[in-house]
Amino acid sequence: MAQDNVVIRFENVSFEYNDQKVILDEANFSVRRNSIVTIIGQNGAGKSTIFKLLLGKLIPTGGKIHLENGATIGIAEQMVPADKIDLTVLDYFKTALPEKEYGIEGDIYKIFKSVNLDVPLDRKVKVLSGGQKARLLLAYALITNPDVLLLDEPTNNLDKEGVNELTIFLMNYEKTCIVISHDSDFLNCFTDGVLNLDVHTHKVEQFVGNYYDVINEIEAKLERDRRQNALLEKSIKDRFLKINKLGGKSIAMSHLARKLRKEIEEDRETAVEIRREDKTIPNFTIPCQEYVGYIAKIKEPIVTELVKGVRLLIKGPNGIGKSTLLRSYLDGKKADINPKIRIGYYSQDFSELDFNQTAYDSILSVNPTALPQEIYEAGARFLLNGDILNTKIESLSEGQKGLLCYARLVMQKPGLLILDEPTNHINFRHIPVITKAIDGFEGPVIFVSHLPEFFEKIKNVREVKLSPL
């Protein structure tokens, strides 16, 4: 790769948290100017860490990061930062261009047009829909006209039309872009290459080609490695049998046995370390609260009573007010919910979580009588070990926050589930397990989802479509 065409180069870059948790071990890769590269890897492999290293929020513990002279970087994060969520749209963009006093409104409208966003500049960021926020985050990253654009799960909260628009935008994008996403069909439309991070070896493999070709190449290599190791293990087993037969019958046989043992040790050292897949959460159930009497009565957009087994899927385009409707059910404006019913709520922005709490205290808050052992067991079921449970929620990854929400639901034992994009931020490996748990919940469920592979597997769903006024 010609060095004069490289905008980013990682040279033996290592990073570890608190001198203990290794994330990257001598990572080497390059990103060409005007290319679009995808980062893939298991949970905790370092995808977001690479973004933070590029932005200067983290400093490598070893190696060097080379950035083309004068190159600027912009990022479209997964969520609007908590310290900016209460700003107006105009003030939000002023934080991206603090030195520009005049004409920023024109710049904002120009960027809005490129990402197909139309919201008033005096509107508060926090009241925007999930899809509008996704477009807003992209616009925020683009307004500084960066040389390198970083996209962190950009399809979260976007409906099918929004994903198509983003795909076309990236296919026509003329600068460098690095994307983290679990949406394989989306990635395959524009990817020039893939960086594959391994959570077990802490290494980075670089591949050139579209997403599906690279995935097939990785799988083919994995199969070759498995076959090679299987042959090696067979050879080792055969030699062990020989050693057992030789025993200690003579000095010559003892020498031969030692030679075979040495060969076995050498062969084991040369065995290929096969890429291990990310752990998947085990099957779980969300216990349903025992109750007598009515559960809830919905007033809008339809009038209906929620009983056990009812599933309402709220559908409609981005910005139509789906999340707002769910919140109106929670606060009792458009629903009469039995005050004795515990409501299990999953919001797309984790607004139900107190980010200053530890994950442990967050679980305890929904079940104050739970024993410590029960909380640790609930956390472990969702891959949240003791260290993670005792970490403040603000420091968790988005994926860990999502799993924490499910641990809370299990411990809460709700009588009603209200779920706003319940697969957002969730690793694709966990989605079938979560789908099965929600489908098996005995109480009523009201939910919003843009993911067909999720909502099409929930039985007895009644669709409620919202339309513009």
Structure described in brief:
The chain has 15 helices and 17 strands. It has helices at 47-55, 89-94, 104-115, 130-142, 160-171, 184-188, 211-246, 251-270, 322-330, 359-366, 372-381, 386-389, 398-412, 431-439, 452-455; strands at residues 6-17, 21-32, 36-41, 62-67, 73-76, 148-152, 176-180, 193-197, 204-208, 296-298, 304-306, 311-315, 335-337, 343-346, 416-420, 445-448, 461-465. α3 (104-115) crosses α4 (130-142), α7 (211-246) packs antiparallel against α8 (251-270) and α11 packs across α13.
Terminal CA distance reads 55 Å
Class by alpha and beta content: alpha/beta
The biggest sheet, with number of strands, parallel, antiparallel or mixed sense and barrel status, is: 6 strands, mixed
Let me know the number of strands: 17
Mean pLDDT equals 87
How are the strands of the largest sheet arranged? 5-6-7-3-8-9
Can you put this structure into words, describing what you see?
The strands form 4 sheets. The chain has a 6-stranded mixed β-sheet with strand order 5-6-7-3-8-9. A 5-stranded parallel β-sheet has the order 14-15-16-12-17. A 3-stranded antiparallel β-sheet has the order 2-1-4, covered by helices on one side. It contains 15 helices and 17 strands. Helix 7 (about 210-245) runs antiparallel to helix 8 (about 250-270) and helix 10 runs parallel beside helix 13 (about 400-410). With about 475 residues, the protein is an alpha/beta fold. A hairpin with a 3-residue loop joins strand 1 (about 5-15) and strand 2 (about 20-30). The mean pLDDT is about 85.
Write the topology of this structure:
Blueprint: E1 6-17, E2 21-32, E3 36-41, H1 47-55, E4 62-67, E5 73-76, H2 89-94, H3 104-115, H4 130-142, E6 148-152, H5 160-171, E7 176-180, H6 184-188, E8 193-197, E9 204-208, H7 211-246, H8 251-270, E10 296-298, E11 304-306, E12 311-315, H9 322-330, E13 335-337, E14 343-346, H10 359-366, H11 372-381, H12 386-389, H13 398-412, E15 416-420, H14 431-439, E16 445-448, H15 452-455, E17 461-465
